[in-house]
Every structure is written in C-alpha cells, then in structure tokens.
Amino acid sequence: MAADKHSPGGAALTDLVLEVFRLNGRLLSAGDKLVAEAGLTSARWQVLGAIHYASEPQTVSWLARSMGLTRQAVQRIVNDLVGEGLIALKTNPAHQRAHLVTLTRNGHAAYALADRRQTPWINALSKGLDRGEIERALVLLSTIRSQLESPNDGE
What we know:
Blueprint: H1 8-35, H2 42-53, H3 60-67, H4 71-83, E1 87-90, E2 100-103, H5 105-126, H6 131-149
Antiparallel strand pairs: 1-2
Helix pairs in contact: 2-5, 3-4
C-alpha cells in the first residue's frame, strides 16, 4: 500500500478524528456558556473536575496526564485558579517541589454550580440518542485513547 493512501480503516478513523475535533470545539463553546455563571471557562471547569474526581490530592503533572494535556497548560490554569481562591496547593510529602492540588470551599461551590448546570443540559442533549450507541462510542473512543497512550503512541 502506498504511504499516502489510507486503508479503509484509516480513512474511517480519519473521518472520526475530524468529527471529534469539530465536536470538541462545540463542546468547549457550549461549556463556556454553561459555566460562565460560576465564573469558569470550559478549561477551568475541566481542571476542577479532574481535581474533584481524583481519589486523593494529586500533582499538576498527574492531573495533566489524566486529562491528556501538557503539564504547562494545566499549570497555567492551576495558577489562575489558585489566584482566584478556587484551589489550593498543599505540601507533598513525596516531593518537595511538586505540590498537591486541592479544591477550596469556593472551588467546591463553583464546581457544584457547574455540575448543577450540566445535568439538565446533558439530559436534554441525550434525548433521542440510543444509550447503547453512546456506550459503544465510549468504548471505541476509550480504545483509541488507550492505543495513543501505548508506548508506540498509536503507530
């Protein structure tokens, strides 16, 4: 097969990736509108969510890996959120320079407000969609992400 010709699977996956890019843009835009009342953006909401769902306080590097983002991008948002009093940095007994990130009382409140806004929005968005198809799409996207996280980086 020529290097410049997609296989049928490669062509289909390219179409899916392009659609995911378009969807991501729409989700970020909708998310910004959804959480504006909480004083958040989609990016800040995503970081607060990663902190909220972590089983214990984590470092910026861990949060970035769990979100599939660079440490620098997450660090910038963390710095902003610390400045706004939504998160705090705690001493990490395992590493002097890599602080643990935690939500403050205001951070919990902002996240809870965003969550209350998201629930009716996502319920409305899911109307008319088949739950089984959603679950199959989740498995597919998770599998693709896992392949990208493999040592070969999906190659």
